[in-house]
Amino acid sequence: MLRDAALTGLGAALGAVARFALDGVLPLLGVNVVGAFLMGRLRPGVFWGPGVLGGFTSFSTFAYLTADLPLPEAAGYVAATLFGCVAAWWLGDVLAGRHP
């Protein structure tokens, strides 16, 4: 249990640094879609899954950015994030051979 917590924390720190490094290159929606795809494709363990990919993607930043948008743009961004991330995860899962 403690080992998994330490691995998750270390991975999350690395994922957050990677997200910060990509700021301005890849928008948050892109980061979240890429992270969702990798999670579905790889189904990684605690270090790479909840750790690195959990730190790489960010619901709190998504919520912060969405709160500052006018309502029509916020609704579109929420829909694009939901659809894009679920579709990306599913595509990754399909490419991994877990669905016919």
UniProtKB/TrEMBL annotation:
Q: Name one GO molecular function term.
A: metal ion binding
The record's Gene Ontology biological-process terms are: cellular detoxification of fluoride
| Membrane topology (UniProt) | Multi-pass membrane protein
Any single GO CC term annotated in Swiss-Prot or TrEMBL for this entry: plasma membrane
The primary site where this protein sits is membrane
Tell where it localizes. Answer: Cell membrane
Cited Pfam families: CRCB
Residues annotated to bind Na(+) = 54, 57
Instruction: Please give the activity regulation comment for this entry.
Output: Na(+) is not transported, but it plays an essential structural role and its presence is essential for fluoride channel function.
List all membrane-crossing ranges: 45-67, 74-92
Coiled-coil regions listed in the entry: none
Give the reaction(s) catalysed: fluoride(in) = fluoride(out)
Q: Where is the signal peptide?
A: none
Q: Which UniProt keywords apply?
A: Cell membrane, Ion channel, Ion transport, Membrane, Metal-binding, Sodium, Transmembrane, Transmembrane helix, Transport
Tell me the function of this protein: Fluoride-specific ion channel. Important for reducing fluoride concentration in the cell, thus reducing its toxicity.
NCBIfam families registered for this protein in UniProt? PRK00134.1 (NF001101)
Alphabetical list of HAMAP family matching this protein: FluC (MF_00454)
> Which family, according to the similarity comment?
Belongs to the fluoride channel Fluc/FEX (TC 1.A.43) family.
**Protein name per Swiss-Prot or TrEMBL:** Fluoride-specific ion channel FluC
- In its UniProt entry, the species of origin is given as Corynebacterium pollutisoli
